[in-house]
Structure formats: C-alpha cells, structure tokens
Amino acid sequence: MKIIKKDLRHNKLVIKPETEDDLWVLEKIIQPGDLVSGKTVRSIAIERGDKREKVKKKIFAKITVEKVELNDGMLRVNGKIVEASEDVPHAHHSFEVEIGGLVTIEKEWHKYHLDQLNAAQRKQPKILICVLDDESADFATLTSRLSYDANIKGITGKSLGEQDKSPYYKEVINYLKEAVKRGAEKIIIAGPGFTKDNIMKLIKNDKDLGGKVFTDNVAHTGHAGIQEVLKRGIVDKILKNSAISEETRLVEQFFEELGKDGSVSYGKEEVKKAIDMGAVEKLLISDSLIKDNEELMKKAEQMGAKVKIISTEHEAGKRLLNMGGFAAFLRYKLN
Predict the structure, then answer these.
(1) Which of 1, 176, 293, 317 fits a disulfide with 312 by CB distance 3.0 to 4.6 angstroms?
(2) What sections of 133-242 are H helices per DSSP?
(3) Cα(31)–Cα(36) distance, rounded to whole angstroms?
C-alpha cells in the first residue's frame, strides 16, 4: 500500500492499494458516513435522436459511504453520490476500489486507523510455513494474514527406511519450490523429530531454495504446529516486525495474566468501565467489532490507552473473539 497524499488537517488521505491484503485493510477502515472519491465507471443515459441509450463512462464521483463489502478480491463501496463530474447528484452508486487504482478517503482519522495503514505500507515478505513429521506436512502462507494452504500425506509405518520416504520428501520439496515461484520469499520448516532435518539435508544446496529456508522445533504438527511457530518468535526474527506474530503474543500474554488473576479485564462492559476510569493501558479488540465500536476505541485513545486491533483470521484472534472480542491490560488492578 502507498499513501500518495496525507492531508490530516482536512481529514483526507489518497491511497493506492497494491495487494489484496491492502483491500482487506481498507475494508476494515472505511466506515458508513465516510466520504470516498475517485475515478469510477457508471452507466450514463445519453439521448441519440429520439432514442435514449445507456453507455458506461468513466467519471469522477464522491460518495457518502453506506455499505462496504469485500468479496472475491473486489472491494465494493456503496453509497450516495454527493459530487460528480456528470449530472448524477444524489444517485446511489457502487464504487469499486481496485488494486493499483487511487482512492481518496475523507473521515475522522484516529491513531489506530493510521497504525493499520502504516503497517500495510511496510511491505511484509510472503512467508511459507511448513510443519511436518513422517506422516504429514501442512503448509500455510503468512503475509498480513494467515492462510492455510495444503496438506501432503506421508507413508505411515514405523519400519520405513529413508528410501521408502523419498517420494514423500520429493513431494514436499516440490511444493516448497512451487511456493517460491508463487512469490514466497522466506520458508520456515518446523516440526517434532528429524523429518525437518532430513528435508534440510536434501535442499541445503538447492539453488532455488538456498538462503530462504529457516528451521524451528515445535511439539505439534498440523494447524496447532503452525500456531506454535507463530508463538515462538521465529517469524519476528526473520521479519523484525510481524503483525500476526505480535497479535498472537499479545493474546497469549493476556490469557496468561488472566490465569494468574493479573491486571487484565475482558468483556465489553467491563472493559468500558475500565476505560472510563482511565485504567486501561492497552485495549485489544477483534477486527470484526471495530465498525460498531468506534466511539469506545476513540474514548480509549483519549484516556491514554493504546488500541490494538486483532485479526480474527488466526487462531489467537478467534480465541479472543470467542470470549467477546474485548480485552484490556490495566495500569492497576480493579476491585
């Protein structure tokens, strides 16, 4: 994502989304009541003699947002036109925000909005995570989001020798190479036992994979193993600053404090009380709840709290949402 122009004095930003992840970020930021403008295509009625025809024409339009939808990699912003280069005032219009296009957003910008945009500006390398043992290999892609990609089954049996496992190893290595062709810049291979080490021996001199692969030890395979990779911090060692890894650690830290009866609070009403008292140091809120809780987040910032939006697309985020979607680290323990 690129911020082409920033005019916070007039609450206006011009933004260029460059990936589908950027559209996902904008879908979370654009709210009903915001103003969105830019070049768009609209059907315009034209008189041709005694006939009236509709033609598609590229126009400039500004709309007051009523609804935002992200489907199949397309961000649609629906609302009422308040300004346009053609005579179409007050008509409703569906504005398609495209990758590579420019969109102007006018809204009341808060720090947590700008934090999301700044994070999206820092291009995060695509990381492939492979968690495996002798029996199966699971793959996930990490960008600003986490997506589970594939599973490869090994050949079960305790007495198998390395030669018997070679088709499985070859299939795993071929998947790693294809992932690099699809844009994976770093690869983490993790798991219990020696399977990861055997794979590493086979690829250590590979020209396509050399220098891209890191290893780690985890106790589990499958999705649980992938989540364990995120918790252990190897992603941060590679990237220095991974949003999902940071979010996972924050949620885990919250549950640790909760288990010790520490200075934390959860649930919307309890967190709201703590915000009103100025007791909240850091607020965690599920991304699916932010559109309906702007005032609460604004109040938290006004009272000196840091607001951290937690994605519901990874396991830690789902865990937070399952307990209400609101959690807070407190400056002091409340009675």
Answers:
(1) 317
(2) 162-181, 195-203, 222-232, 234-239
(3) 10
H or E element, residue 296:
helix 294-302
Rounded to an integer, what is the distance from CA 316 to the centroid of its chain?
13
Q: What are phi and psi of 190, to 5 degrees?
A: -140, 165
79-118 pLDDT, tens digit per residue, is 999 988 776 656 888 889 989 999 999 999 999 999 889 8
320 CB burial (10 A radius; 0-12, 13-18, 19+): buried
Domains observed in the chain: 2-121 (2.30.30.870), 127-241 (3.30.420.60), 244-330 (3.30.1330.30)
**Farthest-apart Cα atoms in the chain, separation:** 85
Q: In this predicted model, what pLDDT tens digit does every residue of 145-183 receive, in sequence order? A: 788 899 999 866 554 455 556 889 999 999 999 999 988
Q: What pairing do the DSSP bridges indicate for beta strands 146-153 and 186-190?
A: unpaired
Pairing of β 186-190 and β 127-132: parallel
Residues 83 and 61 sit within 8 Å (Cβ to Cβ): yes
Provide the sign of the torsion angle of the four alpha carbons 238, 244, 250, 252, taken in this order.
negative
